[in-house]
Design brief:
The protein has 3 domains: about 50 residues, no CATH class; about 150 residues, Nucleotidyltransferase, domain 5; about 60 residues, no CATH class. A 6-stranded mixed sheet has the order 3-10-9-4-5-6, with helices on both faces. It has a two-stranded parallel sheet with strand order 1-2. A hairpin with a 6-residue loop joins strand 5 and strand 6. The chain is of the alpha/beta class. Helix 9 packs parallel to helix 11. Helices cover about 45% and strands about 15% of the residues.
């Protein structure tokens, strides 16, 4: 996936490859638009694979055989080699796609697709900000300068809200206020996205565009990582490979992936 704001660096990159590339293949919708540029710059014929997910699996196999030190985000030393069997490939691009690679590179099973990703985040950010020329990096910068908890509702906020509503009833029954026990849940856990707005806990006039965009970013990433977790749990998958442009420049990806890693007990999230 190529963004228009990144094209200049792509052009420079292709210039450095002249004469060194004999064969080139690509997959994904956007690569079709750039096919002629690749062929013209590199003086080669480019092969386009319609099955993006199969290509990802084969790319994983190639990396495992040819790259000695891949970049690991989370790593458990109990696994010394990169497994290529019974693993998940989680692709975070315009939307989230999650597939399982079984016994070999041709044993591929689609587990889930979210329909929500980088395009969703950017589209909603443009609508909220009324900035039709906003690009991904600008939207990310806007999100990181905002505070999603200005609009998002956590468990303790929810209890405080209903405690306030029933104060008069408590007085009539002569019930003394006590500290609420959240049970097995932390009061800081998310209860509802934009929940503070729906319960009138916050004045809409005090909410900044950056706060809303921040909530959209957290929602998009957390929904996808949650789907990743559920798919892995269902298939008893212990190793997940994460790819996709949306997770490359996303500053909260590590937080969400760390949470998934801890919940599912992944040996590796790569």
């Amino acid at each position: 996936m190529f963004n228009k704001e990144e094209f200049q660096s792509l052009k420079n990159f292709l210039e450095t490859l002249k004469g060194d590339i004999i064969k080139c293949s690509g997959c994904g919708i956007s690569i079709r638009s750039y096919k002629k540029i690749f062929e013209h710059t590199l003086n080669i014929e480019m092969n386009i694979n319609d099955n993006e997910l199969t290509t990802l699996a084969k790319g994983l196999y190639f990396m495992s055989k040819n790259v000695d030190k891949p970049l690991f985000i989370y790593d458990d030393k109990r696994i010394n080699n990169i497994p290529i069997q019974n693993v998940m490939i989680a692709s975070f691009g315009s939307s989230g796609q999650f597939l399982k690679v079984g016994n070999d590179v041709n044993d591929i099973k689609m587990l889930a697709a979210s329909g929500e990703g980088g395009s969703s985040f950017l589209g909603l950010s443009r609508l909220i900000s009324q900035m039709s020329n906003l690009n991904h990096l600008e939207a990310i910068k806007m999100a990181t300068s905002g505070d999603n908890w200005k609009v998002d509702l956590c468990i303790k906020d929810l209890h405080k809200h209903f405690d306030k509503l029933c104060e008069l009833e408590m007085d009539s029954y002569q019930i003394k206020e006590t500290t609420y026990n959240y049970g097995n849940y932390s009061g800081s856990l998310l209860s509802s996205k934009f929940g503070k707005v729906s319960l009138d806990i916050v004045d809409i006039k005090d909410i900044k565009t950056e706060d809303v965009v921040s909530s959209i970013l957290h929602s998009t990433v957390s929904n996808n990582t949650r789907m990743m977790y559920l798919a892995a749990k269902t298939e008893d998958i212990k190793v997940a490979y994460v790819c996709g442009n949306f997770m490359t420049y996303n500053p909260i990806r590590r937080i969400c992936l760390k949470t998934v890693n801890q919940c599912q007990g992944f040996f590796k999230v790569l």
